[in-house]
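ugh ok fine here u go
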Amino acid sequence: MATPEFIRRIRATAGHQLLYLPGVSAVVFDDEGRVLLGRRADTGRWSIIGGIPEPGEQPAAAARREVEEETAVLCVAERVVCVQALEEPVTFPNGDVCQFMDVCFRCRAVGGEARVNDDESLEVGWFGMDALPALEEFVVTRIKQAAGDGPTWFEGIDPV
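structure:
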């Protein structure tokens, strides 16, 4: 994940200590029901597309921007899938530690051709739901939530 300029300014004084940051992720489906994934340059693992909103940027707009920047796919956000504080902090190769509050969106592709579009991805591709590569559990959960028609999921809130 490329570090936004506003985070670099914070890191100049905060160092590598834990920062709690907003994050967005997007489960993007095409007309064939395939999901868009990128193999991340920082971990080498396949994942849904995500990133950090810029100050003042709306979460859905940030998700749409991240998808286009990383994959050249144009999409529209259809609904919020879940809102979740990720349990574990992430330590990046440079030593920066972050913990994210993720807002995940179900999105629909409306244009563009999937390709590596920046230095954050090693590969980009469309995958059938029955042919997903190895994924971290939280990614699988988000894809399943986005594929269903259930309500937005919030951890710690029991259904009434």
